[in-house]
Amino acid sequence: MTLSQVPTTAEAQPDISYHPDEAKWRARTARRLAENPALPSQPLPEGFPAKLEGPIVWKGSDFTSEDQWVVRLTDVHLQEIDDGLRHFKSLNKPLGHINRETYPLPTLGAVLFDLAKELYSGRGFFVLRTIPVEKYNREEIAIIYTGISAYVGSARGKQDVTGAVIAHIKDLSMSHAHEKGHKGNTAYTTDKQVFHTDVGDLIALICLSTSEEGGTSRLCSGPSVYNEIAATRPDLIKVLAEPWPLDSFGGKPGYTFKPLVYWEDGHMIIQYTRRLLTGYGEQTRSPHIPAITEAQAEALDTLQFVAEKLSVALNFQKGDVQYINSIGLLHARDGFRDSPEKTRHLIRLWLRNDELAWKTPAPLQPNWTKLYSVAPDNQRFPLEPEVRKKDNNPIPLPPTPNVAT
């Protein structure tokens, strides 16, 4: 499909929603194969490999213990983290100036940089265990988290137009902000998040507290998903590699066209968020933009169900920091239940390691340039949860205690 073949707004959106329906997926697959039995015989897009290999190609069943991805901080490392905190505070600089020079980690820094190589050249993820978050107030946690992450990713991405470079991932469904119509992002609910990627190269998540029940983090190798689909339905790889109409939900422009899958400089890159194609909750898909096709609907569900089958579950503990290659792996989250005693609360960074980074596909480059363009003095570090905003007026939520719990 070329841009000229993208469906017009007169064509109806397929029967597909944010939460995939396996019965509908199987029925759609059977219907499309009955209509055209030659679909599985179509070639892969030109230049795309028949099969990917390497350490980032894994299945969840390949892992037998979390010791394969958990890196435990030693007493020496924890002392360096404390020393780095004191050193940065003594400089009296804005938090945007946190970097490898202003937050020195004499031995841990080298360990973290080697782990960054694992993100780009290895399995694509690791967990740092554990920061004693109960020892620090919220600003100190932000300094420590940003300081250690500077050794993993040299560039921080802004997460909204206010220049916020950290974002709180927490259930805000009962908040005043959500009453004002911001119910379009699963990150601010207890709902299940389906497999997706964030923008940018790397994601970091520090866990300040866990939920009463659920909320398991799940990861999947994008190349492994590619291999299975390429072997069984190469026609769907072709669909994924062609332009899709991505809703901006009132942004400017109202929608953009981008592929979901790229073969770039020897790397298979997946970049997509399902809600931009299906809507979510009150943020329904805009009525005046092109619908996705039946082929795209099948491909979207195929991505999800293959990822579920091949994924690994991570046991996220209080004080853990999870680092993920967001262009090589897909990630998801189970639904969860909070209680007055236990409320799930993560803080996110978007990072890029300029020394190790993969080549960014041309269609993604404008977003990457914008993402990593915020200067140190313009970086904002909100210490309390707020909903990401498209304008310069974030809606802060009622204050919570300064000490992380």
From TrEMBL:
It holds the Pfam family TauD. Keywords: Oxidoreductase. Residues 384-405 are annotated as: Disordered. Signal peptide: none annotated. One of its GO terms (molecular function) is oxidoreductase activity. It comes from the Eukaryota. Gene3D superfamilies: Clavaminate synthase-like (3.60.130.10). The keyword Mitochondrion does not apply. Transmembrane segments: none annotated. InterPro entries: AlphaKG_dependent_hydroxylases, TauD-like_sf, TauD/TfdA-like. Residues 395-405 have a biased composition (Pro residues). Residues 93-350 form the TauD/TfdA-like domain. PANTHER family: FAMILY OXIDOREDUCTASE, PUTATIVE (AFU_ORTHOLOGUE AFUA_4G13850)-RELATED, GAMMA-BUTYROBETAINE HYDROXYLASE-RELATED. This is TauD/TfdA-like domain-containing protein.
